[in-house]
Amino acid sequence: MDILNLVDISVHYDAVVALDNVSLGVSEGEVVAVMGPNGAGKSTVLKAIMGLAPVVGGEVYWQQRPLEAATHEIVKQGISFVPQGRRVFTHLTVAENLEMGCLYLNNAAEKARRLDSVMELFPILHQKRDDLASQMSGGQQQMLALGRGLMAAPDVLLLDEPTLGLAPIVVKEVFQKVAEISDRLNTTILVVEHNIKGVLDIVDRAYVLDKGRVVHDGTPQSVRDTDILTQVFLGS
Ligand SMILES: Nc1ncnc2c1ncn2[C@@H]1O[C@H](COP(=O)(O)OP(=O)(O)OP(=O)(O)O)[C@@H](O)[C@H]1O
C-alpha cells in the first residue's frame, strides 16, 4: 500500500504550469526515481509534498490522509527533504549541522542516539564531526546533507539531485549510500535525479516527467526498454 500519494496535483507559478494533474505514489520501503529534462517539474514534485510550492489543485496523501500541514510539521510527521545544492550551514560544524535536522526535538538522549547512528552510517561525518562544514568537499557536504535529513528519523526521505555537480567516483559513493540507507534503515526514498544510468541501478521504480506531466511509470527495465527518455530529452 502506498504511504505517500500525489493525486492530480497541479502547481502554477503565475503563468507557468510546473505540474499539470500529476499523480504518483510510493509504497513503504520503496526507492522511487523522478526523472525528466530540465524544467519538467521534478523538484516541484518534492516541493509540493513539503508544502513549498503553490499547489492549485489536487491532494497529497500521507499514510492515506490528506497532508496539509506546515513544512516543519511535515518533517515531524516523518517526511524529510534534502534540497538541491546541499545547503549545509558552512559556518557550523558537522555535528552542529546534523543537529539542525532535529531542532524541534527536546530529548537530548534521543538526539545523541540519532547522532551516533548517523555517524555510524557515515564514518566521514564521525571523523570530521568538529570541523566546519566549509572545510568539506562537495561529496562530503552531500553526505552531511543526507545525514542531516536522517536526523529527523524519517519514514520517507525526499532527495533532490543528490549527485549534482559531483565527480563520477563521488557520484557512485552517493548512490551506494542511498541504497545503503534503504537497505539498512528501510527508509522509503523518492529521489529526483538527472543521472539516469546511476539512479536506475538503485531504484525499484521510476516516474518520467515531461512538461509537468507523468509520461511513464514503471520498473527501471521498463524505462530502459522504451525510448521515452530519448523522446523527452530530445523533445521529439
Ligand atoms: N519559484 C519559481 N518561480 C517561477 N517559476 C518556477 C519556480 N520554480 C520553478 N519554476 C518553473 O517551473 C517549472 C518546473 O521547475 P522545476 O524546478 O520543478 O523543474 P525540474 O524538472 O526540477 O528542473 P531542473 O532539472 O532544471 O531542476 C520550470 O518551468 C521552472 O522554470
UniProtKB/TrEMBL annotation:
The keyword Transport applies. SMART domains: AAA. One of its GO terms (biological process) is L-amino acid transport. Pfam families: ABC_tran (PF00005). Residues 4-236 form the ABC transporter domain. Keywords: Amino-acid transport, ATP-binding, Nucleotide-binding, Transport. InterPro entries: AAA+_ATPase (IPR003593), ABC_transporter-like_ATP-bd (IPR003439), ABC_transporter-like_CS (IPR017871), BCAA_Transport_ATP-bd_LivF (IPR052156), P-loop_NTPase (IPR027417). GO terms for molecular function: ATP binding; ATP hydrolysis activity; branched-chain amino acid transmembrane transporter activity. Belongs to the ABC transporter superfamily. This is High-affinity branched-chain amino acid transport ATP-binding protein LivF.
